[in-house]
From TrEMBL:
Single GO MF annotation: oxidoreductase activity
Protein name per UniProt: Nitroreductase family protein
UniProt lineage: Bacteria, Bacillati, Actinomycetota, Actinomycetes, Pseudonocardiales
Region feature (Disordered): 309-331
């Protein structure tokens, strides 16, 4: 007979965990994860078959995505009144295992972030004029929750604009990258509608100049560096940095990014993530040197007041996310 301290996760609890993970942001909305429930433990499995050789050649963004899913998984388990701890296997496809046991109610801040999971969207358009309040920004930065991740507001906006403008022009002219992005664009209306379950919604891309567009297409207008600097100065940017460039560091950055994003959602703010420029060879090291960042940048988060609703992203069926036996797990 099981005791309350070792009660396995019930089917309704498993369903809640799967729903929460399904709403996590991911590179090109590829949703590169599955869950495996083992009694009181939940494995978050990285889907190594999801590959983006031109956008994410090293799989770094895939791990960032798994980190965001891990943040949702942890919050959902706490919302189910479970105490949690997390371990990180050193090999295999399991990115992390969340260990649970019956516990008490979560802190109000954690519960608020959990309820924000379903409201969070990727907002790639221009924000309403004006940066967010200093007190709101402080609460966003307090939500990081990962001691190995430092979230900083980047200095020297003019320099950042110069660097991002260069990266934009490179990707806009890259035929192979453009072909990959088109393949991961979810055509959800018109003759090309495919009933997509993954990919970036076509309506979310638009033709606005960066940084509002987020993803660079052939038709994306690129303003000059002065205009781009003005646009960046009108937004709130947060760069997530780590000392190391390891699998564990990438997961931690993803967890921190999602926690900050959910806190922004709690505050009625919207946001989106820029990682595309950070994959150019030598680009991150150049950014560190030019901006004086406290570590390697893993992602740039932009946030502000939305002026319209962001379209929802397609999602895989929940049944596809729950695996009973996943090859490549802990050995």
């Amino acid at each position: 007979m099981k005791t309350s301290a070792t009660a396995d996760l019930a089917p309704f609890e498993t369903a809640a965990l799967v729903r929460a993970v399904s709403r996590a942001p991911s590179v090109h909305n590829s949703q590169p994860w599955r869950l495996r429930v083992r009694g009181t433990d939940v494995d978050l499995v990285e889907r190594a078959d999801v590959v983006l050789p031109w956008h994410d050649p090293e799989g770094r963004d895939r791990l960032l995505s798994c980190g965001a899913a891990l943040a949702n998984l942890q919050l959902a388990a706490q919302a189910l009144r479970r105490e949690i701890s997390t371990s990180f296997p050193s090999d295999g496809d399991v990115a992390a295992t969340v260990h649970t046991r019956p516990g008490g109610a979560p802190a109000l801040a954690e519960l608020a972030r959990y309820y924000a999971i379903g409201r969070r969207r990727s907002y790639r358009r221009e924000f309403a004029p004006g940066r967010i309040r200093d007190e709101d920004l402080a609460e966003l930065l307090d939500a990081v929750g990962e001691p190995t991740v430092r979230a900083v507001v980047p200095p020297h906006v003019e320099t950042l604009a110069e660097l991002l403008g260069f990266a934009t022009r490179v990707f806009r002219a890259d035929t192979a990258y453009q072909r990959e992005l088109d393949a991961w664009t979810a055509h959800t209306f018109g003759r090309r509608a495919l009933g997509a379950v993954d990919g970036v919604p076509e309506a979310a891309l638009g033709d606005a100049p960066l940084p509002a567009a987020g993803l660079v297409r052939r038709t994306t207008p690129v303003p000059d560096d002065v205009r781009l600097a003005e646009r960046l100065a009108a937004e709130t940017l947060v760069v997530f940095c780590t000392d190391e460039d390891t699998r564990r560091a990438h997961l931690a950055a993803g967890v921190a990014l999602q926690r900050v994003w959910l806190e922004a959602t709690v505050h009625g703010l919207a946001g989106s993530v820029l990682t595309q420029p950070l994959h150019l060879a030598g680009f991150r090291e150049h950014v560190v040197a030019r901006l004086g960042l406290p570590g390697l940048p893993q992602a740039i988060f932009r946030c502000g007041q939305p002026v319209s609703a962001a379209p929802p992203s397609p999602r895989l069926p929940l049944s596809d996310l729950l695996a009973q036996d996943v090859p490549g797990g802990p050995r």
